[in-house]
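Human:
Take a look at this sequence-structure pair and walk me through the tokens.
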Amino acid sequence: MIELHPVTLEDKAWIDPLVWAEGSSSADFNFGNIYLWDKSFHQLVGRCGDRVIVAPCYEDKPFFAWPVGRGDLRPVMEELAAYAKAHGFPFTLRGVTAAHLPLLEELFPGRHAVESERPLWDYIYSAEKLATLSGKHLHGKRNHINRFEAENDWSFSPLAPGDFPECTALLREWLSENPEDIDAGASDEFIAIERAFEAFEPLGLDGGILRVEGKPVAFTIGERVCAHTYVVHFEKAHGDINGAYPMINREFVRHIREKYPDTLWINREDDMGLESLRQSKESYHPDHMVEKYTVVITDD
């Protein structure tokens, strides 16, 4: 039976190559998200062949993430089924993408129930479009940025450890300005961001900070998920400063394209089912979505 253990920073060395072998644009599979959100999901990880096994627990309901990597899926799925049965919980896979569904149909014909998880679908954008904001659909974003540039003495720079205390202070201010978001997961996100600061360099994260007259007004953090896609994990800005959000978005994508020229797509993750966040992400007109599903597999 597979052996699982609590995730540690040391797991990055063997998980990263298998995640990259999957080559998926999904935000769920990269090591950064596994590690950063561990305080919320209490994840166990392990290896089965050349695939990564991740067993989170959310709302006291254990499940498996899709076993990313390479090689034959059948023996891996048999191991997962045996593990779930031995530990007394339904064999459930979450974060299953549309590309994975035919594989499950082949392995478990007539034995799997599929449920769409629309709040968890990832928004994928052309990196070039976010860097240039070209086209009539993004005219409003350009207007906000033009106003920001005209009204402010601003600067953008890559995020460095010396910036972390100021970013934490900005995050606390953001929480006080948006108390309604605390119940929507902002407290868990605060913990995840703190973990990002604590392990920024070992995790290989990137970030950016936007300043006005030397004071931070926005910051962002992300990482590569595969050769062609970059995921933005966190983005916070003072909402009362017109244009701060589109500005940090544009400048960070420009920075990422310079640092990783092969980047074609920017994954700005999901909207968590929050209407305001959905409207914000749709306003950038995503090129496509990473559809995600929960699948429960029954016994023979």
User: Anything to note?
Assistant: The first helix runs from residue 12 to 22. Residues 11 and 32 are 11 Å apart (CA to CA).
